[in-house]
Amino acid sequence: MDTLKVLGQAAPPAATMTDLYTAPAGTQVVVSSIIICNRGGGDTTFRLAVSPGGGASIEDKHYLYYDTRIPGSETLAAQIGVTLSAGDKVRVRAGNNMLSFSAFGIEVT
Predict the structure, then answer these.
(1) What share of the chain in percent tops pLDDT 70?
(2) Residue 86 — φ and ψ, nearest 5°?
(3) Cα distance from N-terminal residue to C-terminal residue, the chain
(4) Number of domains in the chain
(5) Assuming Cys at both sites, which of 62, 75, 76, 89 could form a disulfide with 54, CB separation 3.0 to 4.6 Å?
(6) How many helices (H) and strands (E) does the chain have?
(7) CA-to-CA distance for 103 and 77, rounded, in angstroms?
(8) pLDDT of residue 85
């Protein structure tokens, strides 16, 4: 069964790698898009990584975006089409505490 849904949302504290979404057991997932909203007036940066198997540490090869600039009061829509297996994690990090992340996609069970 295919379920279209909001996969995860987070407004992480500054400089803290945060799990945005973990693919549940028994599923395959297509992350169609991730929206990053800068709620503040100043520019900041963000990171976005996919960690296969949900390992505890992030490796350089996991990053899809790294210290990418996002202007104040702007939104970036990343149409990524990433596929995940059970246990894989999407992780985010904000340069300050003014970013909101939302992931959208399909869970296939």
Answers:
(1) 100
(2) -50, 130
(3) 5
(4) 1
(5) 89
(6) 0, 8
(7) 10
(8) 97
Q: What is the CATH number of the domain that holds 100?
A: 2.60.120.660
Contact 34, 102 (CB under 8 A): yes
Q: Which two tokens stand for residue 98?
A: 């003014």
Report pLDDT for 31.
Answer: 98
pTM (two decimals): 0.96
Taking only the tens place, the pLDDT of each residue in 52-82 is 998 888 999 999 999 999 999 999 999 999 9
Interatomic CA distance for residues 35 and 96, integer angstroms: 16
| Cross-sheet strand order for the sheet of 28-38 | 2-10, 99-108, 28-38, 75-85
Q: What is the 3-state secondary structure (H, E, C) of 1-21?
A: CEEEEEEEEECCCECCCEEEE
